[in-house]
Amino acid sequence: MTTWLHDTFPGRDVNLVFARGLPAGVFFEGLREQNREPLAQGEADGWAWAVHDMINVAEDTDYEEVDYGRLCPQGAEVVVFVTEPCSAKAHGPHFAYYRDGRTTLFFSFEDYRQQRMGDNPDHLSAELFAAGVIGPAAECEEWKDGVHDCYEHEDADELRLVRTIADAFGLPSPPLAALPRDPSPLAVPPVATEPVGEVGEARPVVAPGTYAVHARGIDVTELAAACADAGYPARTQGESDGWAWVTWDAAAVRGGEVSQLAGFLTGFRYDERFGGPDRVETVFLSGTPACTCSNGRHYSVQHCEDHPFQFQNSRGGFERTYFNVGRGRETQRHGDLLVRELLAAGIIGRETPAYEADPGFNADGAVTMRIIADHFGLPATT
Question: How far is residue 317's CA from residue 315's CA, in Å, rounded to a whole number?
């Protein structure tokens, strides 16, 4: 449960809203028209700001959310913190950024490291990564010792996230003046500073019309036997650079089932067979086109069984990162394991000049596939 605003408004579930690009009076009146009288308001640094009740407290049956798009005409911006989306269940805050009446970015504080949504989910990714709040180094690993409780630093992590957002937009104070600059008692997660190397030029790591699973922690005999026992005997197999790999003809098996098996191989179902938990990591790659069915176009929605996500990395029985590649599909991803490399390549971010210079840039996802291969050190299966 958040505390960074509730000391001022105890017992109330409130939203904190900032707007620029429209007169402050118009903004405040727009809130009133939606039955949200500002509890506090002000202007500073080009922004108008207001705090209002999340729901219409005057009407017991009015639980409609505020339509902030109505407050954001062409040329305007609105930043929203929903501090208590469900106080009864202690859910984390929500954040949203509107521009020109559209939702550019939205995420929950509970899972922003896994998924962000909107017209550009990576609008703030460069700032969040630089602050160490997303990316592989941002994940707490101490829980594995069986003693550490991540809830002990949850509030501190939340404050760091709020400060990063406030700095990125230049949000005024009050009401954010009391936020400490470095609120976490933990060290800021290390952020890699060495330059990202050139994307390797090599033959495709997975051939067109092929599904491939790379695994490390087991040898190719163990991998191939496990797949065969599950009903998916491999077409080809090999072992190199610490990775075992198997492939299938995409016309002969269902991709969704094979990608699911890749996740299962890393979890409790195979702990006894492979000699203990957390031994195996897998990378699933698909050499088939991205799904074009209605489900396949939506963010983090399970694709149809014939069109799996083109990339999936699994450990501990869970898919840590997965997404489709090419034509900007990487913005609609789950997980930030590769955020640094994707930002550096200009594939994601607030500005993506590579696409503007060449509309066909990475159209087939080949650049992204090489980034994936280089990150994990995957051998080619072709």
Answer: 5
